[in-house]
């Protein structure tokens, strides 16, 4: 990526110059979201701005914002909606800022909806992503588990109290009408797949009006201490700068990335961030009264009252008291730059000055040499607690940088009037970081809620908690006697009332001055009403989750065929035949007139078994290609051997097929060629009776194939499959039927080409019917029409319309078997492979194959393709696939 404006703000953004987050504009941003890099480049790598969701460090420009908290009620439908969902990227925010800046220059108006999605740990599990993010606080479950240690002593709102949310969608805009429509569109997109239980689950905020714009409800200008990310954001003088990985996972500054000795995060976390949402209720009237009450005592809470000239009025004392609580004046001017009164005019509106300060610059030299000082700004001030600086030599600045968070909250609730004074209002707090423990959690528990932070001496000094975010535990006063000769560390042994228990209390003794009065009584005016930890994935990860690992493409037609070739033991004739037939298969399909050569792609997965049954390989995958000769060469070099026990690694091959680079608009066919079952379906002599060692579940995979329009055909190499194994036939017949495919017994290897051509041709025609009638069939189901009635309706409809389809006519080499048919229905209806399902499989006592096919000399007629009236079985496939597929083929 090349950049412009590295040493100055891009001219297209001159009207966005006062934002706390100002982007460096990258020209020629690559469209590929995730570009692999050499190891040597990783230390200096910057994220692709098109791959990072846009609120994380650039912050959405907004006036109105909704947080739509949801529970996923239909995973398949949710993933379908997720494919259509278009989150706003960081690149989009930059482009929007350019548009807004130009509109301001032209005197025109522009408004853009911006949106972002994030998931709780519970939500990621619901989506099927159970992998660890590498953030132990997030991966352990929920913020609810941390409620007590965060100091939240009051009741939480739902859904946070029950920790039930799966995720949250943020919707922002500047205009009320644009915002309302954007929110409605998002809810409409996901409505069939999520549950928004109550109106309280859509939490809304808005920027305060008029002169209060940018101020939170206590009245203080907000979002002034945001960090600038090195290489990604322009920094103002004095603005804290951090490495990108402090906020974004997978880059320099990420504590996991920076420590190669640790287990590294999975690749899908890269460009993601941990988001914290917290609903903070503010007692505005109580806070105002508190300042007014203590304002006249201003001399008592400054160490240097004689420096205040002229003396403060009571009203000025109240403003001064508030500034010492927050660390800034209401205008945003830091207390460190205006010790007793705000500047006139205030510098709080000038971003070139609002962060250009430190806490020692104005001190006498003798005090500067002593280290951190609270002469003008208390150590307990909110901004000093949460964004500390000047703590050398006790805390290194690099450590303080690592604890920085990027905040993006918004006020909620009405303005205070006589009519609304009893209404609830506060701040919808949002922050981002790559590590919760380094960021939000440390700031809340280690900084804001820690009486002894900041560290200002080798001897612990008790300063008190952050008056905004703190909430101290009750302190028990214990009267006791001891031989304390001086101030310093002391240990007391204290007996608990009415018990024999004793407690050892260690602390620092300080002589009580009976004449000293506390300058004010600490009180706390912010109450947490709950929140949650969320993972904000990269846009490429969202696409992966939406497609279950299949890379989306823009193709709208074509045929993709994936061969799964058993490469064990006696399969060499089938390997050779597949090699010899592929060119014929492709030529025949192209000659049908439906596709050009570029429309047809072939892929291949060869498989054997897991160690110790086979130590050569489990699977070898060759992705889709139009270069048929390369697949032929691969098969020419493939020697079928090994395998160990009877069952093989079919489950792993199916998993490879599911995650292949299928084109969204293509007809999709998988052809599994095998003479053995997978592990775990109940065969004797199975060395992995609990299933695939990698936990690839063939039943679940078949269900996923059905969802995505992938038709599975199983070529059963006979007589071995049915002669050696009691469960394989029924299993394969059941899972193939899930996808609209079928199990086909083959006793003559030379018939392979005709079988594949016929199966592909049949799939194409039934796919076309699914595309045409899926919406109507789903509407029937939504109206509570039974499956049997829908089937009857379409049997009649297709018969009356004279519908004909290409049909692969295959000689049936199997005996009819009632027990086998029941077993097939068990597998057809199963959701996963487990012992309960296997326990329902009946023993088949009759012969599987017809007599003439029980030896290798029996030869069936070669399959053929013929156009004929649609059969009842084919109508069943169309109806079933219309109901289970998440998209049209």
Automatic annotation (TrEMBL):
For this UniProt record, give its keywords in alphabetical order, as a comma-separated list.
Answer: Oxidoreductase, Peroxidase
Protein name as it appears in the record: Dyp-type peroxidase
